[in-house]
Each structure stands twice: as C-alpha cells, then as structure tokens.
TrEMBL record:
<dbReference type="InterPro" id="IPR036005">
    <property type="entry name" value="Creatinase/aminopeptidase-like"/>
</dbReference>
<keyword id="KW-0378">Hydrolase</keyword>
<keyword id="KW-0031">Aminopeptidase</keyword>
<feature type="binding site">
    <location>
        <position position="297"/>
    </location>
    <ligand>
        <name>a divalent metal cation 2</name>
    </ligand>
</feature>
<dbReference type="InterPro" id="IPR036390">
    <property type="entry name" value="WH_DNA-bd_sf"/>
</dbReference>
<feature type="compositionally biased region" description="Acidic residues">
    <location>
        <begin position="36"/>
        <end position="47"/>
    </location>
</feature>
<dbReference type="Pfam" id="PF00557">
    <property type="entry name" value="Peptidase_M24"/>
</dbReference>
<dbReference type="GO" id="GO:0046872">
    <property type="term" value="F:metal ion binding"/>
</dbReference>
<keyword id="KW-0645">Protease</keyword>
<dbReference type="GO" id="GO:0004239">
    <property type="term" value="F:initiator methionyl aminopeptidase activity"/>
</dbReference>
<feature type="region of interest" description="Disordered">
    <location>
        <begin position="1"/>
        <end position="89"/>
    </location>
</feature>
<dbReference type="GO" id="GO:0070006">
    <property type="term" value="F:metalloaminopeptidase activity"/>
</dbReference>
<feature type="binding site">
    <location>
        <position position="305"/>
    </location>
    <ligand>
        <name>substrate</name>
    </ligand>
</feature>
<feature type="binding site">
    <location>
        <position position="425"/>
    </location>
    <ligand>
        <name>a divalent metal cation 1</name>
    </ligand>
</feature>
<dbReference type="InterPro" id="IPR001714">
    <property type="entry name" value="Pept_M24_MAP"/>
</dbReference>
<dbReference type="InterPro" id="IPR036388">
    <property type="entry name" value="WH-like_DNA-bd_sf"/>
</dbReference>
<keyword id="KW-0479">Metal-binding</keyword>
Amino acid sequence: MASKTADMLSKLALNNDGANPQANGANGTNGHVSDQDESDEDRDDDATANGTGNTASGAAKKKKKKKPKKKKAAPKVQSDPPRVLVSQLFPNGYPVGEEVEYKNGNAYRTTNEEKRHLDRINNDFLQEYRQGAEVHRQVRQWAQANIKPGMTLTEIAEGIENGTRALTGHWGLEEGDNIKGGVGFPTGLSINHIAAHYTPNAGNKWVLGEQDVMKVDFGVHVNGRIVDSAFTMTFDPKYDNLLAAVKDATNTGIREAGIDVRVCDIGAAIQEAMESYEVELDGKTYPVKAIRNLNGHDIVQHSIHGGKSVPIVKGGDQTKMEEGEIFAIETFGSTGRGYVVDDLEVSHYALRPDAPNTALRVQSARSLLNVIKKNFGTIPWCRRYLDRLGQEKYLLGLNNLVQSGIVEAYPPLVDVKGSYTAQFEHTILLRPNVKEVVSRGDDY
Ligand SMILES: [Co+2]
C-alpha cells in the first residue's frame, strides 16, 4: 500500500493498545511440539538399547519394534489453490528473507555482540514477520500462475485474499480474528493509469484485459506484523522495459536503505535508476518517470503507515532511518505525468490510530465504528470486508466516520488517462545487526 505525499503528514500515534487485542504469536507451535515428541522418543529408545535396562525396558523394546512401521508423515506441500497452513509446512521455523550486511560506518554491526544479542531477543517478532512473508510468497506464486486476462478483478482479489486467510489460518469471520492475523490490507488491483489503492467494491464487473498493466499490492499480517509487498503483471512483452525500470528502482531503494541513512538520499538514488529507462509503446517512446508524490513508508505493529515516508524522487526531507524500524520500499514508474491525484470510488479505509473521541450523532456510524474496532483495529480494510461480515447499508455511517476524522479513506490514485504505471515493493527489517528483505522471493 502506498503513501501519498501531503495526505500523510499527521504523525500517527504508535500506541494501539486500546484498539487491538493482540494474540500471542504461536507460529507453528503444533508441528514443533510433535517433532519434539518424536525426538524424545528416540532418546528413550537409545537409552534402552544401551542397556541401562530395568524392568521397564521390555515394554520400551516392544514399543521400539513397532516404530519402524510407524508411517512417517509425508512432507506437506502447498495445494492449488493454496489452502495448507504455512505453520504445517514449516514446523521448525520459517525461511529467512534476504539478509544484507550493513556497510560503511555500520559494518561493525554484523559481528557486534550487543547488536547480535538485541537481534536474538526479537525472535518472536522475526518469526511472525517471516511467517507472513512466506504466506505472501506462496499466495503470489498462485497469483502469478493463475491470473489471466478474462478474469474479473473480484475473482482475482478473492483468490488472493482467501489464499492469505487459509495460509495464516485466519478467515476473519469471528470477532477479533482479523486482528490476530490474515489479510494485512485490501488487495490492490490497480490497472494502467491507476497507480494504487484500487480494489473492487461489491458488484464490480471489471474484467482484466490482455493489454493491461496491473499492480498487485497485497498485505499479510501475523499478530499485526504487516508484510507489504507488490508486483506488476502484464501479458504483452512491450511493457518489459517499464517493469524493468521499476524493479531496478525498487531494488536500488532496498540497497540504499539502512540505519542512519537519510530518506532523501534513497529517493535521489531511486529516481536516478528509474529515469535511466525508456519504453517504446506502439511506435512512441516514453521516458519512465518516478511518480513524485508517491512514497514508501515505515510500518508499525497494526498500522501500515507509521509516519515516516521514503520518497522516490530527489529533494525529499532529511529524516533518517533508525535501528529496529520496518520499511515498505515501493517505487512507481509511469509513462504519464509522474504525478497522481485522487479519483474514482473509494474502497480502502483504516481506523486512524489518533482518532478523535468525538460523540457520533449518527447511530449507524456508532455501530459501524464498533464493528471496525472489533474486527480490524487499525489494520486497513475495504468495503468487501464489511460485506462478508454481514454489514449492510453502511455507506452513510461510513462516510460520517470519514468526515469525523475517525476513519481515513484512501481513494484510488491515478496518473493521466492513457498512461501506464507499474510498481514493485518489498518490506525490509532494519535488524540491529543485518538488513532483512523479508518478502524477497525468486520472482522479485
Ligand atoms: Co506499501
């Protein structure tokens, strides 16, 4: 999910305690426990075989004889569509993202004992992040193999969201379940000149076309640790240079990011990479422009925008990245103006962490606010997620919450009509001793 310049000026409160009953990150505990049981058994058997025999050893030996017959659980693989919990696929811990050593003045962090200790005591946080990232990789693998022109955006969005719900084990239908894990924000399916924040509302009949450039921006969270990662899909090779530009720009941003790095320096490097490309479409050559009012952003627990921005053009502010922070590094390239404005019907919303405690006179707004707090807390959602919870006729109340400054609306962001925009995005963890590109995969 993108952050737009000027809409995001308010520094969001970081303390979400009241709104978010938090679950313990019990990732993969089941599988792990059963593994341990097995190895304990092995140790018992070994002790018996070594002849520390007593009267119990006979019984233990019988047990051992049975053991070779015990069918070893087949290694589980992901289904198609994805419905197998990743905690079952990785009972002993989740894959680590791409680790990149800090450089220059921060090179000492790689081996520094204090920094390594700080990193180790953060293991729950890391496991939650890596679980979410693995879900993201597996769901997007399904998306990349199965999304084809002719599908409706509604089918595509539901496919991604149901994959995310199944793999995290949070279908989000019971009160509070969405806050423990599952969908981290609405599935962005933004086509052509629409750069970000488009997802279908109920009744949307939009069909993906052969010539479309679709940004797929979806989120996975485990215990409020949101993985924010996006890619662009095309079905015609003529867009290849546009995609190459944005991929290069995002990887440049990821490479430049680090503790004590000024965000303006990252923005300048991103723009330079992006704007070294051009793309030829139907006989006309376009320079690829970085969309100057879209930004990457930091992420805090249960909030997709923590208050810091990562520009994608030069001239940004001198705010520095700090140890322990999490950033969504995302860049957008365009064949148009390189500047987006709000347009079209809103679908994306989130409860503001700093929402004023104003008395609401509209009854439907009060009851809707209650539903939002109990089901999403400050995690972003869209109208379809209210529909599936059985909410009806909520638009008046919803608009009232937006006007009251309690809920923030994130309208679709569009460049000029006829232009094409592309996006790539990863979530990075600025761990004390190493930078982890947690959402990195073989695909991007
Ligand atoms: Co984002």
